[in-house]
């Protein structure tokens, strides 16, 4: 359903954000995991990739303008 789409999900290293990232990936979207916690974010990305999905993790605080621009 979401093949060819990219989902950028903030706070996706845990909780509702992680659940959302897993759901989007299961529907075929490539997912950008944006989270301040490096380990949790990378684990979420790894889980998506292990199940055949596409994901990358970006450690950042999107509340900071400079981090969002990177």
From TrEMBL:
Pfam families: adh_short. It comes from the Bacteria. SUPFAM superfamilies: NAD(P)-binding Rossmann-fold domains. Gene3D superfamilies: NAD(P)-binding Rossmann-like Domain. This is SDR family NAD(P)-dependent oxidoreductase. It comes from Paenibacillus paeoniae.
